[in-house]
């Protein structure tokens, strides 16, 4: 029976959820090959790990029990399955692994290859099917000139077939550079791949080696990466978007192994960059910034948070920090005093489309563009926040405050509202370490004082501030009897009305 104000409760018990799954087989041999259990067991036994955390994305969870059983039978180690990750499944959930006091983590499926620092890590990408012959044919159709300078990038789940693809193309295309998956070994991370890419070629003195997003490749001497085209193997998603935004001066093409089709990527990068630039202007207008902690596993995330808090304060803005798991519109809508959010996450999850949010969500790079006058918009785009830290490839020193700065030098005009805005706090406040938020101001005409803060100032400026008791102002009256009945028809309503005296007909 369907209720008047809710759906049928029985449908909840009968509802089914369609979860996309990777094509697998129930045979133990295919399971061992797909999840590379032999290599995983060697990693566990060689390091004598006793507690192993297995992190799987949602689409691989149906096989979690079988994988765990196989590893425990081969290694005699205790395994723990990490299913519901706090943040993106591409990032390693070191916090959940530490809750069970695991000795290491085995991460399955797609990964952003962001470096970690707490626990030893093994990446198992799996082997998604791909037709190498079709991929090579699509490459030749997209690049008919055999002298084309092309860099081959790929999703990590197709790394097992890259060696065969390189064999088909290297003789015909001498200027093709094939990327190699590589992790930061300083944190004890390892990965299983069978790409058979010649890593010795990357150490040649005539080549310029580039290491970014867990990919390592080289360009010819005397050339830059802007002189190359990019060929990506994988479906359209966050990984491809991250590559295209970072290397936005390069022409991109892609091959989708699921449909076996290749195409020239026609995404308007300039339009996407303009949308991001609009978010930067919103960040410049903001006076209150919310720092969203979107990862607890990427190395140096605490360092970038402290750096953001410092530059936000020096720019004359106030900041609050929020630790959230899955970010959505209702969560961020609870904090109306926040003007803009800055998301600290891995490179693939940093580019959050905030068109549906009440406040824009920017990246740490965009926040620095809004606060640091020394950093200029040149078309370069940085998605990895580690490049913004001291020693990083895109680090820019925040200018030191100068006592001689005038008001005209610390203000500019907003491109959105057309109003004047302050670019930074006064030099005396920065040098002395004081600001308006730490000063005491009179609360009323008496001797009471209060410490001002942004939330209180925002509440004071609202037209409706909630129910107030108004003590001493509201006269005391005797309690009166109220209405009886339900809202649709109170008992005293319609007295003397002929329509009300007529009883309604039952349906």
Please specify the SSE layout and strand pairing:
Blueprint: H1 10-14, H2 28-34, H3 37-46, E1 51-55, H4 64-75, E2 78-82, H5 94-99, E3 104-108, E4 121-124, H6 132-142, E5 150-154, H7 162-169, E6 176-178, E7 180-181, E8 189-192, E9 207-212, E10 215-220, E11 229-233, H8 238-246, E12 252-256, E13 261-264, H9 269-285, E14 288-293, H10 301-314, E15 318-323, H11 329-332, E16 340-344, H12 347-350, E17 361-362, H13 364-371, E18 411-413, E19 420-422, H14 427-432, E20 440-442, E21 449-451, H15 454-460, E22 485-486, E23 489-490, H16 498-501
Features:
5-stranded mixed beta sheet; alpha/beta; disordered N terminus; globular; 507 residues; 23 strands; disordered C terminus
Task: Tell me the radius of gyration.
Answer: 30 Å
Strand order of the largest sheet: 2-1-3-4-8
**Number of β-strand runs:** 23
Global shape? globular
How is the main sheet built? 5 strands, parallel
- Counted by DSSP, the helix tally is 16
Give the structural class.
alpha/beta
Amino- and carboxy-terminal Cα gap: 17 Å
Share of helix among residues?
A: 25-40%
What does this structure look like?
The chain has 507 residues and is α/β, with parallel strands linked by helices. The chain is built from 16 helices and 23 strands.
What's the quick description here?
With 507 residues, the chain is of the alpha/beta class. The protein is built from 16 helices and 23 strands. Helix 10 runs parallel beside helix 13 (364-371).
């Amino acid at each position: 029976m369907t209720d008047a104000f809710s759906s049928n409760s029985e449908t909840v018990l009968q509802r089914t959820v369609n979860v996309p799954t990777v094509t697998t087989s129930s045979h133990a041999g295919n399971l061992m090959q797909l999840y590379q259990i032999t290599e995983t067991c060697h990693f566990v036994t060689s390091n004598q790990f006793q507690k192993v955390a297995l992190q799987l994305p949602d689409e691989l969870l149906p096989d979690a029990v079988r994988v765990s059983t196989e590893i425990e039978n081969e290694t005699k180690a205790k395994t723990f399955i990490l299913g519901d990750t706090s943040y993106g499944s591409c990032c390693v959930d070191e916090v959940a692994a530490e809750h069970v006091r695991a000795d290491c983590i085995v991460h399955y499926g797609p990964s952003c290859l962001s470096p970690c620092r707490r626990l030893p890590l093994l990446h198992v990408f799996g082997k998604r099917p791909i037709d190498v012959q079709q991929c090579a044919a699509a490459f030749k159709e997209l690049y008919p000139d055999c002298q084309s300078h092309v860099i081959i990038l790929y999703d990590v789940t197709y790394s097992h077939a890259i060696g065969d693809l390189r064999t088909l193309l290297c003789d015909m295309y001498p200027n093709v550079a094939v990327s190699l998956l590589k992790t930061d070994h300083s944190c004890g991370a390892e990965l299983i791949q069978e790409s058979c890419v010649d890593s010795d070629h990357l150490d040649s003195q005539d080549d310029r080696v580039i290491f970014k997003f867990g990919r390592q490749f080289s360009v010819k001497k005397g050339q830059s990466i802007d002189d190359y085209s990019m060929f990506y193997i994988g479906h359209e998603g966050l990984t491809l978007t991250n590559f295209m935004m970072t290397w936005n001066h390069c022409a991109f093409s892609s091959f989708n192994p699921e449909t076996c089709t290749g195409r020239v990527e026609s995404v308007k990068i300039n339009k996407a960059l303009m949308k991001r630039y609009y978010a930067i202007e919103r960040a410049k207008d903001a006076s209150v910034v919310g720092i969203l902690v979107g990862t607890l596993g990427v190395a140096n995330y605490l360092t970038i948070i402290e750096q953001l808090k410092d530059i936000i304060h020096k720019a004359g803005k106030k900041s609050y920090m929020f630790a959230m798991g899955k970010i959505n519109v209702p969560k961020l809508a609870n904090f109306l005093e926040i003007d803009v959010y800055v998301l600290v996450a891995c490179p693939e999850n940093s580019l959050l489309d905030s068109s549906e949010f009440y406040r824009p969500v920017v990246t740490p790079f965009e926040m620095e563009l809004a606060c640091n006058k020394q950093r200029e918009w040149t078309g370069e785009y940085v998605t990895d926040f580690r490049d913004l830290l001291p020693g990083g490839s895109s680090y820019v020193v925040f200018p030191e405050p100068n006592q001689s700065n005038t008001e005209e030098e610390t203000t500019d005009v907003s491109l959105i509202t057309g109003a004047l805005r302050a670019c930074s706090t006064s030099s005396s406040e920065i040098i002395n370490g004081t600001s308006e938020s730490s000063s005491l101001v009179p609360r009323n005409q008496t001797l009471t004082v209060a410490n001002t803060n942004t939330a209180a100032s925002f509440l004071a400026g609202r037209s409706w501030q909630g129910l107030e008791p108004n003590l001493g102002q509201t006269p005391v009256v005797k309690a009166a009897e109220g209405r009886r009945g339900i809202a649709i028809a109170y008992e005293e309503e319609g007295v003397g009305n002929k329509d009300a005296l007529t009883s309604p007909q039952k349906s």
